[in-house]
Amino acid sequence: MTTVKSDLPAPCVHLIGAGPGDPDLLTIKALRLMQTADVVVYDRLVSPDILDMVRAGTPLIYAGKAAADHHMPQAEINQLLVKLAKAGRRVVRLKGGDPYVFGRGSEETEFLARSGVTFEVVPGVTAASGCTAAAGIPLTHRGLATGVRFVTGHCRADVELDLNWDSLADPDTTLVFYMGLANLPQIAEKLTAAGLSAATPAAAIMSGTTPQQKVVLGTLADLPHKAVAAGLRAPVLTVIGKVVSLAALLHLGFLDEDAPAAASTERAGAT
Q1: Is 242 a catalytic residue?
Q2: What is the spatial distance between Cα 271 and Cα 252, in angstroms, rounded to a whole number?
Q3: Which of 175, 166, 183 is nearest to 243 (CA)?
Q4: Which domains can be identified in the chain, with CATH numbers?
């Protein structure tokens, strides 16, 4: 029987969220398990600084995936985790962000469960909260956003995003698109066609929380062009909503010099 609890004995697979990149955002539990693992299987978005925190001498197995470039297919990763665990190893499966937020972690734990392998999920700081905080963008703010939605911005090659655009085009909701850099023009076009104002503040955050972080601010209409002009490359998180207007006031010093001035936070009902 599969169990999910803390301090599990080996053999076991610990599915760990490594956070958005800054090693200081690792949880204490994640660090403890990384330093006691027999083997670590890690993804592309796990930063070198975080890998340096794995116990010296521990075997590291790269299982990264990028768009149209899967170093190790998901089915092969699933089988590898089962094989390592059944060989008696304490396995750390290290994934960027949180393993259950667009990290395919649930696919891996489902396979482990069906294979009779004990596992534990260790949550991590997901990119939506970590990267936006570092860029000075609150996900919610009284008078600006009453909710937030995490949305995939990526799909299979040559296939349009199949999303409920009418539902997403809510001016009182913050939208956070993961993996959406290549589809930014489509996202902007679809949301505008669904009724969201083209003037809605928007931001693209590259390599959030790391020394390479770069933030580009604009509107729903011009962000696709600005992202290309700034030379952004994956990983990029896209944020759309009125809360982005606070970035120039609340940022930590990462914004471009031509960032627009922060909008007033005064709204009806705010105190």
Answers
A1: no
A2: 24
A3: 175
A4: 12-125 (3.40.1010.10), 128-250 (3.30.950.10)
Q: In DSSP terms, which residues pair with 201 in a beta bridge?
A: 219
- The single-letter code of the amino acid at 84 is L
Q: What DSSP letter does each residue of 172-186 carry, written as one string?
A: TEEEEEES-STTHHH
User: What pLDDT digit, counting tens, does each position of 252-271 carry?
Assistant: 544 444 444 333 333 223 32
Cα–Cα distance for residue pair 11/104, rounded to 1 Å:
22
Any catalytic annotation for residue 5?
A: no
pTM of the predicted protein model: 0.86
Structure tokens at 265: 């936070």
Lowest mean pLDDT among 5-19, 39-53, 231-245: 5-19
Residue 63, φ and ψ in degrees, nearest 5? -130, 40
The pLDDT of residue 11 is: 76
* Local confidence band at 12 (pLDDT 50, 70, 90 cut-offs): very high
Set 38, 49, 65, 222: catalytic member: 65
Which residue out of 22, 43, 98, 170 is catalytically annotated?
Answer: 43
d(Cα 203, Cα 248) in Å, to the nearest integer? 11
Percent of the chain exceeding pLDDT 90 equals: 80
Strand partners, 70: 65
**At residue 232, what are phi and psi to the nearest 5 degrees?**
-65, 145
Instruction: Convert the pLDDT of each residue in 24-36 to its tens digit.
Output: 999 999 999 999 9
pLDDT confidence of 233, banded at 50, 70, 90?
very high
Instruction: Read off the amino acid at residue 190.
Output: K
- 4-34 as b/e, with b when 16 or more CB fall inside 10 Å? eeeebeebbbbbbbbbbbbbebbbeebeebb
